[in-house]
């Protein structure tokens, strides 16, 4: 009985921690913290060579992130059935080939369709592409009546015509400003996008999406060390990459992973765990994305675990309010992408995402880029708004709110072009 009361007390304290902690928006209130060393293994070995990083420290960090933050994938899922619904070369007045592909995953009497929308430059064979999840369904990224409406669960937005978690024609094209497709095409790139809720609906409910594919008898949610939604979304990006490797219209060596907000968090983990992605762009990803957790600035681990308990694995809950006990921090996540190009971006009015913490994280990760003989972030000073710092590790803070805008896309296109130029 005493143990039960103690356990209940822990749950009450942990559950209310996010509400009790004052949100930090002033640098003077950021607590003193010490980051875990990036180039020192758990047994104290200094990592001085690329081979040591690749054989010792990188696998160690991947294991720690998987075990304590994202959760491990419990097993293999068979390759999907691939259904090509459309290949149309007259999109955007002939500028683009619009392609719609469905990946149907099947296992243990379960079936999960994941729909891919592609706009590829008609004049560029084997085009490089940006790959990113969207928030409201593929049909939301362009006012195009030919895009198939998602049938997956979507957050209610009555003003957008999304009611009872189902979309309607009214939601077509509502996110088009975040996806400047013609700008992307004119720069010589294609766009590949997927509704993230196809892979796993963004709610505290593990009865749908990909998770139940591996449940044992009587199991209703992943075990504490098994994947949460963030790891499932990262897994989904890798499955889309599997398809892109076989698509003759895509240059699979030049797939640029991009994510905004929570989908920026997922993109970073996907890029860290899957080296096939050529580069990664994190837009306003904040806590458990690019920002350093130990700063506790804006959104914190406790807030994430309280508001979105399904995002990360059960083991991660014990770090609510105890960021200093985490064996990792997000500079290590960014470093796992090295030596591939990385872009981290923030916004002046998005203090919740801790812009300075994102910048400092990218700067710390540059230590591993330097190990590869590549200069990472080229400045020690936090840049002025709207003044991007370009390099193998790039950064900008844009004037404005939590969003992805044409200004952001202009920088990402310039960054991608620079990084893909022959040396």
Automatic annotation (TrEMBL):
The Swiss-Prot or TrEMBL record annotates one GO molecular function as: carboxylic ester hydrolase activity
Q: Where is the 4-O-methyl-glucuronoyl methylesterase-like domain?
A: 226-373
- Cite the InterPro entries for this sequence: AB_hydrolase_fold, GCE-like_dom
UniProt keywords, alphabetically: Hydrolase, Serine esterase, Signal
Is Signal among this UniProt entry's keywords?
yes
Signal peptide segment: 1-18
| Gene3D superfamilies linked | alpha/beta hydrolase
User: At the top level of its lineage, which domain of life is listed?
Assistant: Bacteria
What is the name of the protein in this document? 4-O-methyl-glucuronoyl methylesterase-like domain-containing protein
The species is Gaoshiqia sediminis
Q: What is the lineage of its organism?
A: Bacteria, Pseudomonadati, Bacteroidota, Bacteroidia, Marinilabiliales
């Amino acid at each position: 009985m005493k143990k039960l009361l103690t356990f209940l007390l822990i749950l009450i304290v942990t559950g209310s921690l996010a509400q009790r902690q004052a949100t930090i928006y002033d640098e003077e209130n950021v607590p003193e913290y010490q980051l875990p060393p990036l180039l020192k293994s758990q047994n104290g070995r200094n990592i001085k060579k690329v081979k040591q990083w690749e054989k010792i420290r990188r696998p160690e960090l991947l294991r720690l992130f998987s075990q304590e933050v994202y959760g491990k994938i419990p097993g293999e899922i068979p390759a999907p059935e691939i259904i090509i619904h459309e290949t149309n070369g007259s999109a955007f007045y002939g500028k683009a080939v619009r392609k719609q592909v469905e990946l149907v995953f099947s296992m243990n009497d379960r079936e999960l369709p994941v729909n891919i929308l592609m706009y590829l430059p008609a004049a560029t064979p084997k085009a490089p592409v940006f790959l990113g999840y969207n928030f409201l369904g593929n049909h939301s990224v362009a006012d195009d009546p030919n895009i198939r409406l998602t049938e997956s669960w979507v957050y209610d937005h009555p003003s957008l015509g999304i009611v009872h978690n189902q979309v309607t024609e009214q939601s077509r094209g509502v996110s088009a400003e975040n996806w400047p497709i013609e700008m992307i095409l004119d720069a010589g790139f294609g766009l590949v996008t997927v509704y993230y809720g196809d892979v796993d609906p963004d709610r505290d409910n593990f009865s749908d999406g990909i998770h139940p594919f591996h449940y044992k008898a009587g199991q209703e949610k992943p075990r504490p060390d098994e994947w949460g939604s963030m790891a499932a979304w990262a897994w989904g990006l890798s499955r889309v990459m599997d398809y892109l490797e076989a698509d003759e219209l895509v240059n699979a060596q030049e797939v640029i992973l991009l994510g905004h907000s929570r989908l920026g968090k997922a993109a970073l983990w996907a890029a860290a765990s899957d080296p096939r992605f050529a580069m990664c762009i994190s837009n306003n990803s904040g806590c458990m994305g690019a920002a350093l957790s130990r700063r506790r600035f804006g959104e914190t681990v406790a807030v994430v675990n309280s508001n979105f308990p399904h995002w990360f694995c059960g083991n991660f809950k014990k770090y609510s309010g105890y960021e200093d006990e985490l064996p990792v921090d997000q500079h290590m996540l960014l470093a796992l992408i090295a030596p591939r190009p990385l872009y981290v971006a923030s916004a002046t009015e998005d203090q919740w995402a801790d812009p300075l913490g994102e910048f400092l994280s990218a700067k710390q990760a540059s230590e591993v880029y330097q190990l590869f003989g590549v200069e990472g972030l080229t400045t020690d000073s936090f840049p002025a708004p709207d003044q991007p710092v370009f390099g193998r590790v790039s950064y900008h803070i844009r004037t404005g709110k939590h969003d992805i805008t044409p200004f952001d896309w202009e920088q990402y296109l310039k960054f991608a072009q620079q990084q893909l130029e022959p040396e």
